[in-house]
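Help!! Second protein's tokens look totally different from the first
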Amino acid sequence: MFNSPNVLYTSAALSIIGFIGLSALWFWQKNETSTFPLIGTDEKDRSYAKAGENFAKDSYAVLSEGMRKCKGAFRVMTATGPKIVLPTRYLEDIKSDDRFSFAHEMAKQSLSHLPGFEAFATPLHNNIFQDTIKIKITQSLGAITESLSEETSLSLKQLIGDAPEWQECGISKTVLDLTTRLSTRVFLGEKFSRDEKWLNLSLAYTMTAMHAAQTLLKWPSVLQPLVNRFLPACIGQRAMLQSIRDILEPEIAKRKQTKDATLREGEKPPLGKDTLDWMDEIAQGRPFDLVLGQLQLGFVAIHTTSTLMTDVLLDLCAFPEYTPSLREEVIEALQENGWKKTAMYKLKRMDSFIKETLRLRPQSMITARRMTTETVSFPDGTVIPKGSSIMVPTITAMLDPKVYPEPERFDGERFFRMRAENEARAQLVTTNIDYLGFGYGKHACPGRFLAANEIKVAMCHLLLKYDFKFVDGENRPDPMTWETAYLTNPALKVMVRRRKEEIDLATKLQ
């Protein structure tokens, strides 16, 4: 095996590329002209390599050091290059400033200019992707709540089962599988949400893309196009993308034929039923790759939603005293309103519990990832050069004792009580400068309304149908990290058992 010409050729190529990469990093550092202090180095070694190594090892410590030492902006070295870190006070200035581009920064971070990663460039195409979420998906929430309940009921029976005895459950994987099915039901309908091949492939692509990106980001940006051709993870990702095209493109072609035939007969095509139709409607004839758009939807929706739902269940295990009141609220809301959007709104205690979970367990240490499309001068004289990548830390923003009394303590009814003072501000989906769980400003997460709806529907079933607790001797685990991202341990297990629900969730309530 080791004498295979292909293996020897690839090894030699990567070795040469690696040598060139070291030279490229040296050249990059020598030509860096930023005046902002670089955090993450020491007196002996002030190189980008050392800064990058320390940031990868403990980004929380590096960010904390920068915030402690610097009153203004500072720099850190990340896997995608140097970033300027701005204090939270700049959020008001950048929240709606088009010179700070979210799409361009995401395209850079996700390597969307490289073959296999093209899906991550979809936000750059005329806002078609963003408008599909903001307009079509958000407006459909009232119509899909009952379908989400139906999908949750079937999925939990398969994923957890009906055993009345306590049993171990791989909670991260179970919730990830559940969220994949729920999101697929919204994005592609019942046919695809029940198709195991599609579910496995769409979920695997996200994981493969993340792994491929992490592997590729270890190389200097100037070499990534070349290395992308040789790395096994990247080769596998491109093959998986083609398999996804093989499934979706015939469906897209079939729908187009039906639509064209309807138009030829002088009739108006029916309104779209899922995101394949909706993205096409929003595009209005403008070029847009529906397959890549579908992949990007899965990428931004599934893992973030499943991580939050997993954290909510872990907090239920850690604070079981909240379970009785949450169950009572679910029963009352569903008996009065059925599976309607109004019922989800009336789950105010659940809304508060989820929001408190996200306050203490945000999915990232930073927000407001942007790239400047031109040089920007702030009122205080701070100048951000064109082409700079910037971000704002969240690690202290949601722990301000002036806003949140006893900020380190979990209080599941914190935001429920806040509703008496400001109903809108206390809701899970509301963003403001004191609550950055979904970002802030113009580019706050557009899918947060769908995520909130999916989690609430799923939690109605999970609360009424199951009991949860930690495995004996274990407590609330700390999250895993990769650079600035918080992740749940994929091997994490909890105990679960079936209970008799007080109302029949499978029937049409009301």
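Here's the second one for comparison:
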Amino acid sequence: MKQERLNDAAIALCRILQAAGVKHGIFGGYGIGALGGPRESKDVDCIASITNAEVIAIVNFKNAFVYVNHGRDDYASFLWSDRPSRERASPGKSFRELGSRSAIRDARSPNLDPAGNRKVRAAALRDKYHDSADIRWLEGNYRPLLIERRDVVNLDYAGLAMKRYPELEFVFNRIGIDVQAAKARVAAVYLSGLPPPQNGDFQQGLHG
């Protein structure tokens, strides 16, 4: 039932954005799950080529969405419910934006940002094992597309991701990333010395 409500919320959001002519794409755990991956999510992550103020103006009070102000400037959150009482509202609807009008490069497949670059960036910078699992699942199901886009993967992030999750070396080899060059670029970097991720880091990763 929870997944069905997330599906309804995602469809409602996409309809609003499409009607407004806004380029957008779904990503994150929900995006992986929608493609058939072994992931569950409590919210729907969406990125679009408009600003926070614009998305609030477009989405708030449309198709049962209500804006929730968390005081963040890197994303806007909404609750969605198809019931007038707002009963069982789906929490954490995040509409993430880049703070600019940079267009999404390709939204043919949710979460398939340039060669999975967001996931590579996430795997490099944080300890969440599902990032590695998502990359392996994407490679297993979308290898030709990832091979096509391998040149846009940041080698620093690929090297750090392999330090954190050694099993990714086999994935990167199969899609044609220069694994040895990636390793060499971060040979002197210690994961424990990396700064913690900042607000907006992973959304920015959608654009390399």
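Reply: Different proteins will give different token patterns, so don't panic. The chain is about 45% helix and 10% strand.
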